[in-house]
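User: My instructor asked us to take a sequence, write out its structure as tokens, and then describe one feature of it. I'm not sure where to start. Here is the sequence I was given:
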Amino acid sequence: MTASAPAIIVVEALAKRFGGGFGIDGLSFACARGEIFGFVGPDGAGKTTIMRLLGGVMTPDGGSILIDGVDVVADPETAKRHISYMPQRFGLYEDLTVDENIEFFADLFEIDPTSRDERAARLLAASGMTPFRKRRAGQLSGGMKQKLGLTCSLIHTPKVLLLDEPTAGVDPVSRRDFWRILYSLREEGVTIVIATSYLDEAERCTRLALLHAGRMLHCDTPSALKRLMPGELITLTSPRARAARDALAGLDGVHAALLVGDSVHVVVDDVKRRIGELERALAAAGIPHEQLEPLLPSIEDLFVSLLDLGVAS
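Assistant: Let's start with the prediction itself. The structure tokens for your sequence are:
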């Protein structure tokens, strides 16, 4: 967040306990208006708990949350006027049509019919859903249901949109459409907080928080986070990728060897110095492979290498 952009979300020392342990442990961050702020981490990292706390549907055991100047902990009902929270399974009514679902949620927020119809038409057009307005929600594909859920979440023009893994299980085309809508909302000044397990999606955020076991490991822009990579990266592809990884792990200068499909990403101290050594080690082990090449790290490479190196512990 830049100094010129005032914070619309301010979270300080947020904590939530489950069964005597911390689900969220001392989380602090701030979001500027119009920012896409992402939380990424494995299952159990605390992403859904954070979303529920921000949305005022769960009470923290410690810390504070301010959204647009409203104390979410002390006055969640007032805060909800500024927020729209889309959980992993949005509560659509499958026996109602697309239009009827939108009307229902608009009535909940007391939106007048003219404003509702104008906004619904624009949102449905942006998501390619206009031809399906009379179709029952239960007859929609998974991706279309998510786009309808987003439309219902936005019908009252919230200042902050909370999305908990909104594209989980959604086809690639629908994911692309979904993100196109998010970018357009950002241009309108909507602040978006998104939890995702898709690390390629994480790179689309303006800033990103890496979570592990309820704690924030790092928070910065995706490009800045990649500079935290503990070493340099070499990639290779092999029909025996697991054997290649095992042969390279533990060699001098190798910080980590990460299995990525039929490829291996090897984190080393010096690419120029080590690439020949890795090549010779694979040849000695009789492991077939394509040529080793330097690789720019992704957020996935960073996150997995941090965990593999024990940085998160």
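For the description part of your assignment, you could build on this observation: Residues 172-187 form the longest helix (16 residues). Try explaining in your own words what that tells you about the chain.
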